[in-house]
Design brief:
- The chain is of the alpha+beta class.
- The protein folds into 4 domains: 19-119, Immunoglobulin-like; 124-256, Immunoglobulin-like (Sandwich), CATH 2.60.40; 269-385, Immunoglobulin-like, CATH 2.60.40; 478-555, no CATH class.
- Helix content is 25%, strand content 37%.
- It contains 11 helices and 30 strands.
- Strands 21, 23, 24, 25 and 26 form a 5-stranded antiparallel beta sheet that branches.
- A hairpin with a 2-residue loop joins strand 7 and strand 8 (109-110).
- Helix 7 (483-492) packs antiparallel against helix 8, helix 7 runs antiparallel to helix 11 and helix 9 (518-524) runs antiparallel to helix 10.
- The protein is elongated and about 125 Å long.
- It starts with a helix and ends in a 29-residue tail after the last helix.
Amino acid sequence: MRFDMRFGAMALLVLAPCLARADIVASLDRHQAQLGDTLTLNLQATGSSQLTMPDLSMLQRDFAILGTSNSSSIQIVNGVRSASTTLGVALQPLHAGHLVIPALRIGGESTQPQTVDVSAAASPARTGTAAATGARGIMLEGSVNPVSVYVGQQAIYTLRLYFAVNIANGALDDPQVGGLDVHRIGSDTDYQTTRGGRRYNVVERRYAVTAEHAGTIRIPGLRFQGQVVDPDDPNAFFGALTPATAVAAPVDLQVSPIPGNWGSSTWLPSSQVKLSLSGLPASGGLTVGQPVTVSMRLEAQGVPASALPALSLPDLHGAQVYPDKASSQDQASSQGIRGVREQRFAIVPQQAGKLTLPETTVKWWNLRTHQAEFARIPAQTLDVQAAAGQPASAATASGPAAAASAVPAVAARAAGGQANPWRGLAYGLLALWLLTMLIGLGWWRRRGRKPSAQPRQEPTLSPSVDAAASVATRATRAARPGAQQQAFAQACQGTDLARQEQTLLAWARAERGTIRQLGDLQQALVEGVQSQVIAELQRARYGVGSVDGAALAAAFAGGFQWRPDHPDQEAASGLPPLYPFKLD
């Protein structure tokens, strides 16, 4: 048996390099090009230090293979070594169109297919190239795509600097146009192309531009200013430089107004919109009083996050909804800016049964079909279970309802007592006599202890009626949140931890005067969600971790869950005390 274990260990050591297969990823440096441009297909392998050359013969129908290059890197982070190898393949499109680089087989793995849109070579008159500077080996051209847009629709303005000389330094202007919102996309791209039989190096820069009003908006010609090394200057070797300038021709953008039949919804022109909801339990089951946090996410291609509509959940029958602070971001790619808005909600079920989340829709304008469409989250129905050990009726019963339900029980006891009325009468008289003696004794002791006579009190209701009224008053007060609870709920919508702590303690002191700090409140509550979020709030106040405002508000949505043995806690049953006063 010992031999088998040693053999297995040795086998694992030998096979470990084979089992650590490389993850191979294929990518293009850009997905749009013109005839004559060069592209770079990068094949990167991680987990292995070697990458074999794949079969590239299937690419020769659409591309000319200009050459290959290899590079490798090793990183050691926290003592963990990781290696990667990159194989670069220079490609030149042979014809225009939508070209596909198929999956390449490398070892035992395959890469993902890649696509590139290749257009015919643009002429200087159409693209806005400054032809006057082309003879000196430097050209600057600008183009916009598409040339006709709606108000609020994103277009891509591309600026290309062509140079066939050695540039020592230079600066390129960014477009600044009134009525046009301009955002630079990513970093510059370097490649090579052929124009008029001459080979050029190219620096490409892209901008996302969005029109703010209808009409014709002209993007003026931008300027490049720099210095080049003059090859005809005998002193060039010693650093003699010659000034160089290139100017692009202006480009016009035609902007159409918002369609008249759009309506009052937020204008959302896009080529793709996604609306999703996550966070609901896979089982579809919820529990009364236990919050669940869901996240609604809206994504729109070509629309910045600042232009996306706000996300919301409607009022739910049988549950409270607490929205958190929304988050948004802009994701830049070669296709432009993709806006993302995310809104989190804490849902607290209030009663057992069925809880329905209605359908949520976002209206948007499809730029491909030029029609209005709707992104949808379908309606969902969830099962809500009562909390363990707490019947649903007990959690929602009010004081008057409890008093009304007690009437049949009293009537039943009275009906049972009619079998022997004299015995019941005797017991009642005896109880009244004992009660009178106790009241008299208590009154005598209080009067003997206090020399100053207390003001005479008016006759009061019986203890049972007074207790029932107290229960009804407490239930009414609990059903109507006070100013302290509302202030706490408002504080949870922000990020001020100090205000959240202050408003929570103020609310707690309104019910329990002995509460002074979060530690006191945590000890006075039953162990559960409320004590957990208080611990998170304490850690966040000391700079350790963070607290979710929506979850904090949801935990106390139904009020405080005091411990039953708390000295100030009143009887949960609502029955009057055995003695209407305390014996000293």
